[in-house]
């Protein structure tokens, strides 16, 4: 099996950590379709919290896609969320699984720092050009989602206080 690939990035926000985490993670099922209309639905399979499976259905161009992820850690007190992509998306042809740990920590001036550590577990003999393209595309999508949530929270100062 090929080596796992770790991708790390951080983004700063002027929003307080708990407010950003609550909007970005805890209430993502409700907020995601509002701020990113490409997401058509989010379905919970097996309840809420650790061990639950979420199916996110979205469109790219005129095609509908989905991805399923399992919640591995949801620590609201420490603002940490870990999940594993288990089906859909880029898994079928490139990866066995993808794990992501998101943490929101205090930042400068009362703001926060969003930290993401994503581990890609490629299948045997992966096309590393495709793997790199996927990582770049995933980063761009994550950053767009982050900025959309952040903009919504700035525009709606009473949400998630």
What do you see in this structure?
The radius of gyration is 16 Å and the shape is globular. It has a seven-stranded antiparallel beta sheet. It has 161 residues and is an alpha+beta fold. Strand 4 and strand 5 form a beta hairpin. Helices cover 31% and strands 43% of the residues. The chain has four helices and seven strands; from the N terminus they run βααββββαββα.
Task: Give a brief rundown of this model.
The chain is an alpha+beta fold. It is built from four helices and seven strands; from the N terminus they run βααββββαββα.
Q: Can you lay out the helices and strands and say which pair or pack?
A:
Blueprint: E1 5-13, H1 17-26, H2 28-35, E2 39-45, E3 53-60, E4 63-75, E5 80-88, H3 91-94, E6 95-106, E7 112-122, H4 128-155
Antiparallel strand pairs: 1-7, 2-3, 3-4, 4-5, 5-6, 6-7
Helix pairs in contact: 1-2, 1-4
Counting helices, strands and paired strands, the structural category is: alpha+beta
Order of helices and strands: EHHEEEEHEEH
Distance between the termini: 45 Å
Low-confidence stretches: none
Q: How much of the residues is beta strand, in percent?
A: 35-45%
What's the arrangement of strands in the largest beta sheet?
Answer: 1-7-6-5-4-3-2
Shape: globular
| Quaternary status | single chain
Q: Gyration radius, to the nearest Å?
A: 16 Å
